[in-house]
Q: What sequence folds into this?
């Protein structure tokens, strides 16, 4: 059986925020919708199913926990530092 697609969205303003926060979490069709909206608004999308699954254990509004900082920072560096 194929595992359901999961998507998480993060927000981070390095001038204001102490850590990135979760702005959306979804599986299946909800995950597809999150990705479609991101693409529509030209928000970068990065596929990392294990990280999305780990972030999917959080609640919308939660800060990314310290144990995931490195993984999230690596994704941000790939998406935003070019």
A:
């Amino acid at each position: 059986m194929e595992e359901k697609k999961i998507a998480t969205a993060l927000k981070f303003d390095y001038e204001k925020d102490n850590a990135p926060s979760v702005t959306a979490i979804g599986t299946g069709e909800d995950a597809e919708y999150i990705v479609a909206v991101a693409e529509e608004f030209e928000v970068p999308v990065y596929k990392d199913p294990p990280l999305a699954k780990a972030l999917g254990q959080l609640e919308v509004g939660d800060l990314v926990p310290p144990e995931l900082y490195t993984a999230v920072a690596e994704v941000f560096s790939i998406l935003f530092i070019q």
